[in-house]
Amino acid sequence: MKTLSTHTLLLALGGQSLLALASEQDTAKGFVEDSQWSLLNRSLYDRRDYQHGSLSNGARNAFKPRSERSDLAEEWGYGLMADFTSGYTIGTLGVGLDAHVYSGWQLDSGGGRAGKARVLGVDNDGHPKDEFSRGGAVAKLRWSSTELRYGEQRVKTPVFGSSDSRLLPETATGWLLTSRELPATTLYGGHFNESTDRNASSHDQGFVVNYSNGRQGNSFDLVGVRNTAVKGLSASLFNAVYDDTWRQHYLGALYTLPLVPGQELIFDLNLYRTQDTGQALSGRIDNTTWSLLSTYKIGSHSVGLGYQKVDGDTPYDYVTRGAIYLSNAVALSDFNAPEEASWLARYDLNLTGYGIPGLSFSALYVRGSGIDGSHMDPNGGYKWLGYGQGGKHWERDLQARYVVQSGVAKNLAFSLRHAVHRGNTAQAELDANQIRLAVEYPLGGKF
């Protein structure tokens, strides 16, 4: 596939516009007339108390010498995210421009406590920066209902996706084509040269790869389709290539089955198939990972049961922090180790039905076992993780969230999470207790 296939897709999607009877571009009102701005204020506190000396003795938190590390990872920052989204010029071909500036400020941390939570930017000596910023822009074209975006942007697909789970969001540089010419169908094509992590201030660090320490590929390409033609069903199929590293296929399906008024069953299936390609910069990869989450929803209550399985000698790996749609990927662990099988149980409560709109609670528990890293490529990019045989671990997450519904503080959101992870030495995650508090206040409007 690689770049040739995405270029071919560009021509194919453009040709579909000839068949369109009505298009999104027909509703264009102008570059300024449809423009919008948003300003998100976020304060994030993340405290991780690592147990049994696992952080001070672990090589993965290597921002400080071992003698200067602490078992307490603690970071607190304030982030400001300003976004401008233009409208499209009127005519057959619409032209637009989006831009963003993201800035983060340290409120509290230290060289011995910073680095593991990835909330704050860190300098070359392992000390958190007082301030870190970055900005970018996207040029965009729209013909009929097909949009081409080029520049630094946030992307959301199952194989390449920008995470927004820390102080600032992740971004990527390249082009992304999205087409909605066909009924109930969205087609995707993309080519990216790099991704920028959430606490980064530069744009030239290559790609964010979550588990491999192998050499970097130079590009990432994807094509995909999402269809909602069947009532209650959203199905997705994607194909991606991380240059000279791996080829990945993804199949996803989300189906909602109504039972009686106020009750429904929801089934969420995600499957990834990954194989090494080209120079195999991360070594031999032959991995199939899938998850199925079944949820019963009745009124304000939701009860879910999930199963996840990794079939392969390497962990399920992904480029960018957000390209993991597996149900058992939770706060402190992805439960994605070689040969791992894991079960999830979760409960969600929305208090709107009890007269408290905006307040919700969730609780989940995941247990994984059967980890076996003994057949991993000894020269590959995953050997450093130290997987053994008989690895097992568990995680428990509790979260409360409240969003103000009216008044001057409308949309002000508070979320509090407490997470606990424990495991044996044959798996790769650290034992930790986490407390995470986030406060967000969005502003925005039209020009």
TrEMBL record:
EC number per UniProt: 3.4.21.-
Matching PANTHER family: CHITOPORIN
Domain of life according to the entry: Bacteria
UniProt keywords, alphabetically: Hydrolase, Signal, Transport
Enzyme category, top tier: hydrolase
Position of the signal peptide: 1-22
Example of a GO MF term: porin activity
Designated name of the protein: Porin D
One GO term describing the cellular component: membrane
Pfam families: OprD
Family affiliation: Belongs to the outer membrane porin (Opr) (TC 1.B.25) family.
Protein's organism: Pseudomonas fluorescens
